[in-house]
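#onboarding

Welcome to the new folks! Below is a worked example of what a typical request in this channel looks like: someone posts a single protein sequence, and someone else replies with the predicted structure as tokens. Don't worry about understanding the tokens yet, we'll cover that in week two.

Example request:
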Amino acid sequence: MPRIVIGVPVYNGASDLERCFRSLLAQDCPDLEILVSDNASTDATPEILARFAASDRRIRIIRQKHNLDMSANFAAVNDAADCEFFAWRAHDDWSDPDWARILVGLLQNNPKANLAMSRTVFYHRDYSGTVTLEHAAPATPADDYARVKLAANMQAEWFYGFYRHAELVRVFNRTRELFPNPWSQDFGVLLHFVLSGRLIGTNATAFHSQENIRSMKYRPAHWRVGLSDFLRFCRVAHIAARESGLPLGPKLAFYLSLPKFAGHHTEKPRRILRGWVKERLGGTGATRRARPRRGGS
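Example response:
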């Protein structure tokens, strides 16, 4: 089986798949498999995938019978992969041709690292090719307090780096169990790797991403859901801190910042309180307008 797998969870991604797959097939590393989970797409996605799979044996496709939520579709490719190194790839992102080779090489040369990341270039969603932002790759934390500081400044795109697959499976499946809402689930996963300090970055290659709001529909719309997500996220964070090996001082600093940190990635305590008060006064207790929950990636 391939040592390297890039998993692509996709739902109705026909408009972006061509560029995504051209980028994946251009990767200059050997032993690469591209594993796709088509989340019961209703557009031209199945036809595009079949065409690419017919032209390159490195592509393997899983077709979901029913539409899953975003997290379940990400889990589908993660669970089906049989490899040493794994990365997710959203259907509307792409990377430099040397991206996989360089990041996997970092993990091979640094056995203590479990996650490798590159710099990220962001583009407008209007397909104009206009660069809106660029983030340098994070450096391995220099000390224990630097781990806590880095956790407070995590970027969502780090989730799309390369992992040692065995460790990712353990962390991702546990995070999904404790925090089932796809909203900010990526930060729950990243927290484990950041607090442990077992990550490495390079600016020698780049990951390219368009602005999107795929997971926005999963944001809590009622104070009760927001409170549940807040407490669940704190539980994930507590386990990550417990396993991090941090000494007492930095760990205490992290716990003191946890309410603000969890509120930033789930629902702010003041919004939860405001929703509770509204409900007590006869209102709905909503914290924001509800969004539909179908069509995960």
